[in-house]
């Protein structure tokens, strides 16, 4: 039987019939891959709230190890060196600033970890109840920049350390660090928690050995008495390093059982944040002050190469130094993995349609972008570190202040006053104008209080950088009256709708 001839019109029809076949194949392949990943234990959930019945985790101390490991790395060490290197402080003054600013700034992120078991919300999702559905995109964007910035800095300093003991460039080291960080964050909280429970041990060993073999060279070079400008400006960088953890705090406790004691979680988080951070930042300050008196350290420290400095410190242990440096370079993955994991939640806050995209897909995209940015900025580490840590504390201070005032003052600290079913319904959430307005207006005083390389405000000329303190205080004071006004406006906006519903019901009943 002769096959029918095809007309030009039938040719396009044939092409059209192929497309669904390939589309179906791709959809089936994606589904099978997703099922396989889920079977392997990879976490798919993104910003969607965790239901009460799914909050079953009772190994609560794991949050202590998450924060302990996330801050026991080279970046904490490097941020401590800023005291003497950038702000000209002596060892005693550097350590005092590190101690007191960390103790103060760790309170908000430690407190916000207690929200996860009560609400089942990721942190930025919870901020919708203060900033509104669309308004929460603003702190979301700033949180994304902060998380990416920290990850880039970690990649650079980790790549430096890896390159210092291997015949490779910083670029190759950055890629290796990024791939390992991606694997941990890709798998989700189960693997991430296991990783954070273990990784602090080798990191601690490395820093103990480095202190043991290099401690005899520690000196405290005499310096002029510290000024308020030096103290508060260095304190601003310490605040930027610590307080921004608050933007992702509850991301790691959403699976915890709701009946866990909030005080217990707070203490675990507070200790985890402070023990590693304060210890390593003080060590970094001591080593930076001593480096000029030790030629090998000074040579390794050329161009702010923190990895080279630590490599020089470990030279007395001989060949074992390479093993220690590899472990030390990989320590930054303990900070990168949580940052990348939470960046996926931020993507879904900024672009709500991405809720349908599996979380692990977003982590691949995030790392791809971060690798490029890390390679571009790898030779400007110290300038970037100082400027970045100083700036990010401003927005974080305003954001923390607004959501805490909303929770403690307007909701009386009662989690039952959150309508958890409305997490993605803009009309049932606050307008967000009060939070955004209070935060924005606070910058009329924050800007004069800033002390940066490119700008020093008139207040900061006398006091040093007190921008983040001003942001917290002014936002809190402004938010209360603005939120009261916003509530009145919300009621008036809803009244016409309620009246229309009543009239409609009356017509139907009549």
Automatic annotation (TrEMBL):
Membrane topology: Multi-pass membrane protein
Keyword DNA-binding among UniProt keywords: no
Source organism: Russula ochroleuca
Predominant subcellular localization, coarse grouping: membrane
Keywords assigned by UniProt, alphabetized: Membrane, Transmembrane, Transmembrane helix, Transport
Residues annotated as transmembrane: 59-79, 91-112, 133-157, 169-192, 199-219, 231-255, 267-289, 323-347, 359-376, 388-410, 431-454, 466-482
CC annotations in GO: plasma membrane
InterPro entries: Pur-cyt_permease, Pur-cyt_permease_Fcy2/21/22
PANTHER family referenced in this protein's UniProt entry, alphabetically: PURINE-CYTOSINE PERMEASE FCY2-RELATED, PURINE-CYTOSINE PERMEASE FCY21
Protein name, UniProt field: NCS cytosine-purine permease
Lineage: Eukaryota, Fungi, Dikarya, Basidiomycota, Agaricomycotina
GO-annotated molecular function: transmembrane transporter activity
Family classification: Belongs to the purine-cytosine permease (2.A.39) family.
Compartment annotation: Membrane
Entry annotated with the keyword Membrane: yes
Gene3D superfamilies per UniProt: Hydantoin permease (1.10.4160.10)
């Amino acid at each position: 039987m002769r096959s029918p001839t095809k007309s030009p019109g039938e040719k396009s029809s044939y092409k059209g019939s192929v497309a669904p076949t390939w589309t179906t194949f791709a959809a089936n392949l994606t589904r099978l891959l997703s099922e396989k990943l889920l079977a392997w234990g990879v976490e798919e959930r993104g910003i969607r709230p965790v239901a009460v019945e799914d909050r079953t985790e009772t190994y609560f101390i794991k949050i202590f190890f998450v924060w302990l490991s996330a801050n026991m790395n080279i970046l904490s060490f490097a941020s401590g060196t800023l005291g003497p290197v950038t702000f000209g402080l002596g060892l005693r003054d550097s350590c005092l600033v590190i101690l007191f600013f960390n103790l103060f700034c760790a309170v908000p992120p430690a407190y916000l970890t207690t929200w996860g078991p009560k609400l089942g919300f990721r942190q930025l999702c919870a901020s919708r109840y203060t900033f509104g559905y669309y308004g929460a995109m603003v702190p979301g964007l700033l949180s994304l920049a902060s998380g990416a910035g920290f990850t880039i800095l970690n990649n650079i300093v980790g790549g430096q350390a890896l390159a210092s003991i291997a015949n490779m460039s910083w670029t190759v080291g950055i890629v290796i660090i990024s791939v390992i960080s991606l694997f941990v964050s890709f798998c989700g909280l189960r693997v991430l928690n296991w990783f954070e429970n273990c990784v602090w041990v080798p990191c601690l060993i490395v820093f103990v050995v480095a202190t043991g073999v290099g401690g005899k060279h520690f000196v405290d070079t005499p310096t002029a008495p510290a000024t308020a400008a030096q103290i508060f400006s260095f304190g601003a960088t310490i605040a930027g390093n610590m307080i921004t953890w608050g933007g992702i705090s509850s991301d790691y406790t959403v699976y915890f059982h709701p009946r866990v004691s909030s005080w217990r979680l707070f203490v675990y988080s507070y200790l985890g944040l402070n023990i590693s951070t304060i210890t390593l930042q003080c060590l970094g300050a001591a080593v930076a002050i001593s480096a000029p008196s030790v030629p090998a350290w000074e040579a390794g420290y050329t161009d702010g190469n923190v990895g080279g400095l630590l490599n020089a410190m470990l030279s007395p242990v001989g060949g074992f130094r390479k093993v220690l440096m590899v472990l030390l370079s990989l320590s930054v993955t303990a900070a990168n993995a949580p940052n990348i994991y939470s960046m996926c939640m931020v993507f879904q806050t900024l672009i709500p349609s991405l809720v349908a995209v599996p979380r692990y897909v977003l982590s691949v995209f995030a790392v791809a972008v971060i690798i490029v940015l890390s390679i571009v900025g790898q030779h400007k580490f110290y300038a970037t570190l100082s400027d970045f840590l100083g700036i990010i504390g401003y927005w974080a201070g305003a954001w923390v202040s607004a959501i805490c005032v909303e929770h403690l003052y307007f909701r009386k600290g009662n989690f039952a006053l959150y309508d958890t079913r409305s997490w993605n319904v803009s009309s049932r959430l606050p307008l967000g104008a009060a939070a955004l307005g209070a935060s924005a207006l606070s910058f009329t005083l924050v800007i004069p209080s800033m002390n940066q390389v490119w700008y020093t405000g008139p207040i900061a000329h006398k006091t040093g950088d007190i921008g983040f303190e001003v942001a917290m205080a002014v936002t809190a004071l402004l938010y209360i009256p603005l939120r009261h006004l916003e509530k009145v406006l919300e009621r008036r906006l809803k009244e016409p709708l309620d009246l229309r519903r009543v009239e409609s019901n009356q017509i139907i009943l009549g």
